[in-house]
Amino acid sequence: MIIYSSSVEEFKVAVDENRIASNIEAVYIEKLGKRPTVSEWRSWNNSMQFMERVIRNSKVADDCGVMIEYNIPSTSKRVDFIIAGKDAQSNDNFIIVELKQWEEAWTTDKEDIVRTSLGGSKVETTHPSYQAWSYRQFMYDMNEAVYTKGVKGHSIAFLHNYKEKNPEPLKAEQYQNTIKEAPLFFAHEIKKLQDFIFKYVGKGKGMQLLYDIENGKIVPSKSLIDHINALFEGHSDFVLLDEQKIAYETIMSLATKQETKKTIIVKGGPGTGKSVVSMNALGGLIRKQLNTKFVAPNASFRNVMVEMLTKQSSKSKMRTKSLFMGSGSFVDARPDEFDAILVDEAHRLKGKGAYMYRGLNQIDDIIKSSRVNVFFIDDYQRIRPDDIGTVEEIKRIAKERKSEIYEYSLVAQFRCSGAEGFLNWVDDALQIRDTGNFNGWDKETFDFRVIDSPHRLLELIKEKQSNGHKARMVAGFAWSWTDKAKGNPNGQIEDVTIEEHDFSMPWNGHVIRETWAIHPDGIDQAGCVHTTQGLEFDYVGVIIGNDLKYNPVSGTLTADYNEYKDTTGKKGLKNKPDELVALIKNIYKVLISRGMKGCYVYCRDEELLRYLQERLDRTNRT
């Protein structure tokens, strides 16, 4: 979607008459149905003055096309400025200009990441040249009008308030490859910028190209398909087994027949392979040249999946990451804008009032905006009151949207070494559902132990890690989490404390939260359910805090409202003990089921520790 477009001639007149910001605002309100922020309006008014002088003095033809605030389809990203036209050889070109009002910046040791002053504090953000390059790459990957017509795209970053330093942080060695892809221009380099613009679009005739870009069909290019194929090829983590293959082929068969709107519900507990199927379906649908997005409400899960797939440069990650979206991204999407949307961990979808979500119901957003939508779900993994993702709710909305409903179940357990009996035993022991499973499971296939010391628990996990296994410590939300602004950006403060054992360790760091599961520092930090749900390890050590206790008189598990520290997770549940304990038990089931080969549990409540040990002993006697 183009927020504002005009010829260069019209653009120059609008700026001269001091109405460019007002013109952009009017179209913004008309197309997006909301007002821009004050800072956006000021940015337009300021930056467009600079761009008008650059364009005027570059001497490009008046019939070049100008786009301002081009909303990249299928994303929330907007390109600041695009100018389109022909070069001296009559080739079609467009130039993406990333405008920044920065005045200072600092390097980091992260690829394509810098720090700058925003909102009164120093924050990490992507390098301006990287931003410009990434927008151009999206056009090459997804806009059919660009990649089929031989249109040449260029990208630059223009920091019109920035005085170059010596040495200049933004031109540090680690950013040079990106700057080659998207040149960087500072305040004193306006003449160079003018020459660059004239070289590629100076001969004009750019309005038709604007139209083509705006109306280009959003489908994956062969280049993107080849990229995705290379990522999946030979990747053992995403090999389909048995009924996973059946589920995948069922999805592919239904999703590629788009005569009618379809909603596919894939049900399965921990370890049934929901994520393996969903990731393969993403690759398969992209190969079919369908405009497909992968959705996971949990940002940690999304980022770890990208890391596992790519393990390459930031540019490879960016191309892959553009296919992944958060669950609140579809509020403003058009009906059937996407060919397919795949939703992993659908039980974590949210409704009205959820943090940072502007809509009413994320399930409805997704079904509305896609021809085919696939929900991977486990009703027993809801962990917060605002988790509205249930099979019943998906069916209700699908019927309202006249979407055909298909259901599929994954049963066989691939996590926990195929120990379906173990997860049934966990359900029974945690009183989540009565499975009648007192016989346990094949102990040779899965190692489960109740440990009476948190120190010993940590020792076991570190032993597994040092022996080449993926292992992590996790804990229930029974300890507060010190904010990074209070000196805790990466686990400097040991919040998870068990005084009676003189034990303490930090929560997973804010800085590495989204990649904690695979980050080298993760072994010394305790993960929570929000950084682990959907992920898996070889071995997991679980600390059950005082939020979950056992009453030996009634023989029931109880929740302690005051000991449960997730304020959002317990909102409105102070006088609803049954609902609270159900959610907390689900949390611990999620944590316990993260291990594929083994799980070791320590309980702070002595009665709960004794209860689980007795239940475990009973399985050993049968």
What is the structure about, briefly put?
The chain is of the alpha/beta class and 622 residues long.
Structural category is alpha/beta
Strand order of the largest sheet: 1-2-3-4-8-9
What's the β-strand tally?
Answer: 24
Tell me the helix content: 25-40%
Instruction: Indicate the mean pLDDT.
Output: 88
Overall structural domain count: 3
**Low-confidence region ranges:** none
Main pleated-sheet profile: 6 strands, mixed
Radius of gyration: 27 Å
Judging from the principal axes of the Cα atoms, what is the shape? elongated
Distance between the termini: 65 Å
Could you tell me the strand content as a percent range? 15-25%
Q: What is the number of helices?
A: 20
Protein name: Schlafen group 3-like DNA/RNA helicase domain-containing protein
InterPro entries: P-loop_NTPase, SLFN_3-like_DNA/RNA_helicase
Pfam family, one: SLFN-g3_helicase
Domain Schlafen group 3-like DNA/RNA helicase: 261-605
Spell out the key features of this protein.
622 residues; alpha/beta; Rossmann fold; 3 domains; 36% helix; elongated
Mind sketching the topology for me?
Blueprint: E1 2-7, H1 8-16, H2 20-32, H3 38-58, E2 65-71, E3 78-86, E4 92-100, E5 105-107, E6 113-118, E7 121-126, H4 128-142, H5 144-147, E8 152-159, H6 176-181, E9 184-185, H7 190-201, H8 207-215, H9 222-232, H10 243-255, E10 262-267, H11 274-287, E11 292-295, H12 299-310, H13 314-321, E12 324-325, E13 338-343, H14 362-368, E14 370-377, H15 391-400, E15 404-409, H16 420-429, E16 447-450, H17 454-466, E17 471-475, E18 496-498, E19 503-505, E20 526-527, H18 529-532, E21 537-544, E22 548-551, E23 556-559, H19 577-592, E24 595-603, H20 606-621
Parallel strand pairs: 4-8, 8-9, 10-14, 10-15, 11-12, 11-13, 13-14, 16-24, 17-20, 17-21, 21-24
Antiparallel strand pairs: 1-2, 2-3, 3-4, 5-6, 6-7, 18-19, 22-23
Helix pairs in contact: 1-3, 2-3, 3-7, 9-11, 10-11, 12-13
